[in-house]
Amino acid sequence: MVNQNDLQLDGYSILVTRPRDRAGLLCKRIEKLGGQAIRLPVIEINPLKSIEGREDRCTRIGEADITIFVSRNAVLFAERSTPGVFELVKDQIVIAMGIGTKQELKKKGLADVLFADGGSEALLELKQLQNSAIQGKKIAIVRGVGGRDVLEKCLNQRLAEVSIIEVYRRDVLNADHSVLEKVWQSSPDVVVITSVEALRNLVDMTANSDKEKLLRTPLVVIGSRIKSIASMMGFKSTVEVAPEASDDGLMHAITVTFEEVE
């Protein structure tokens, strides 16, 4: 693994598309290495405002044998929509998608958490989610509105009883064309993308005259699924997948990208 302390980012600019409240630490780490962090949130994460179904959510989570949190946002917003959720799951098998999600659960007092990096497909390889382990069991999946259904479908096929608990939504931000023009005038060296929604919205926001620049700019992404979708969308650049879904993983992928071009 590249030693991040040995590589300076002087002269490099990195476009960070994370939501505002999730970009700060990554940007500070980039700047500490001498790089320029360009903040351009392309989606924002918001809690569900309605309290409808709160009692039902508590019941379904409380009755579960296994609860899966699919992202850090799922952890951060779970308690707002389902008060006492971490007390409800403390005696269950708790599974996190990604090391960052596991770390967030630890802050909530849950130390014994299983995790896998690599999205739904990686989680489905865990022995605790194989047919013999979950047949007839109740599983709660805590996620955002409109999340992927790969996990749900596969667990249902393995004869588990699956409940979807939606606790937040992703809202697309309107494009500020003057800001975007300045971004592409400066031609960032790398773009950081942490969700499929962010990738699609960045492409949609970018003016046709600047799309070729975007499609030729190297990407740093979380997960091989984003890499595959970037290829299908016409990206011609290098796409470096972070080894884990965390700031550490993103910084590693950023430094690898620049090491490869030097």
Name its key features.
alpha/beta; 262 residues; 11 strands; elongated; Rossmann fold; 2 domains; 5-stranded parallel beta sheet; 6-stranded mixed beta sheet
Tell me about this structure.
This protein has helices at residues 20-32, 54-63, 72-81, 85-88, 99-107, 119-123, 131-134, 150-157, 177-186, 196-205, 208-215, 224-232, 247-261; strands spanning 13-16, 36-39, 43-47, 66-69, 93-97, 113-116, 138-144, 161-172, 190-193, 219-221, 239-241. It has 13 helices and eleven strands. By secondary structure, the chain is of the alpha/beta class. The chain has two domains: 13-42 and 173-261, 3-Layer(aba) Sandwich (Rossmann fold), CATH 3.40.50; 47-170, 3-Layer(aba) Sandwich (Rossmann fold). Strand 10 (219-221), helix 12 (224-232) and strand 11 (239-241) form a beta-alpha-beta unit. The strands form two sheets. Strands 3-8-7-4-5-6 form a six-stranded mixed sheet. The protein is 44% helix and 21% strand.
